[in-house]
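anyone seen this seq b4? input:
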Amino acid sequence: MRKPVRVLVVDDSALMRKLISELLQSDPGIEVVGTAMDGLLGLKKIGELHPDVVTLDLDMPRMNGLEMLREIVGKFRVPVIVVSSHNEKGAYSALNALAFGAFDFVAKPGDAHSGRMEQIARELSMKIKVAAISGPPKQTFLPPSSTRSSPKQVHTETRPACVIAVGVSTGGPNALQYICSELPADFKGCLLVVQHMPEGFTEMFARRLNDCSPVIVVEARSGDLIAPGHVFICPGNRHMKIHRTVQGDKIVLMDQAPVNGHRPSVDVLFHSIVREFGSESVALLMTGMGDDGADGLRAVQAAGGVTMAQSKESCVVDSMPRSAIDAGYVNRIVPLDAIPSVLQAVCLSDRLGTHVDAAELETHPRTQK
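predicted toks r here
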C-alpha cells in the first residue's frame, strides 16, 4: 500500500491554510505534515519536515512565493503546486512560477467560502499525487528572458500551408514557450492549441508567448480566420473547433459540457480537425496528465492524417501522450527540442497524410532566425 503523500501548505492567510489543510486531509492519500505563513518559515519547515510536495501561495510577506520557489527548486528539489489568486496579477505570477520550476498551479476562488472549494480540493489533490510520483522538477527549455522587439512578419498568403492541432496540459506553458520561440517568423503553418488552463489565465498566457515569439500568438475568439505564422490559444472554459468556409477557415468557440473532465478538451479540437481536414489532419499531443486527446488522435490516424506525440523523456508528465502511444495511435514520437523542426517539415511536406520521416526532416532543415 502506497504511503500518503506528505504535504506542506504555505500561505499567508490563516483562513486559507486552515481550509486547504482540512480539504487535503479529507483525502486518505494525502497527509498535511505542516503549514507556514511565509517563505522564510516555509523553507525552515521543508528542511525539518521533508515533505513530498509543497503547496505555495505567491503573495506573502518577508519572502514572497517566487523567491521561495527559487530556493525550493535550487536547494530542496521538491515539487511545488502553486495556489494562485484568480485575477490578472495571479495569472501573471502563476505563469512566472511555472517558468521558475513549479510543477503546476490551481486557481483559488475570490471567495474562500465558495462552493468551488471542494472542486479546487479535488484538482489540488490530484495534482499533488501526480507531482509526488513525477518527483523533482525536470529540466525545462526556456527561450531568452528578453522580449523580441522586431515586428511580426506580415504573410501574403491567406491560408496556412497546414493547420496543426496541439493538445497539452501539465508542463505545457514552458513547452509551448519553447516551441513558439523557435518557430521562424515566416512559418507557413498555423497552430491551434488547447492548453488545460483556467478561464482568465489564457489571455495572459497568449500575451506572454507572443512577447517572446517570432510568430503571432493570440487568445482565440469565435470567428477568427486562421492564418500562416499564427498560434491560437483556446480560452479557458471554452471548447475550440475549426470550420472551413469559402472565405477561410474559422475558429468556433463553444460552451458545451466538459469532455474527459475538461473544458477546453483536446479531443473536441482533434475531432473537429478530422471532420474539416480529413486525411490532411495534423495533430500533436504533448505533456500532461490524463488521457484527453487519445481518442482524437485515433480519429486523425484513422483518417490518414499525421499523428505525433511528445517523447516521454521530455515531458513533465507523460500520461497524456503515453495513453495514445500505448494504444498505437501515434505515427511519430518527438522530443521537445525537435518539435519546432518537425512542425516546419510537416508544413513543407506535400503529402500531409503520410508519415514524415527523418529523411524528410533532413530535406527541410530548421529555418534559421
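The chain has twelve helices and 14 strands. The CA atoms of residues 19 and 123 lie 14 Å apart. kinda curious what u guys think
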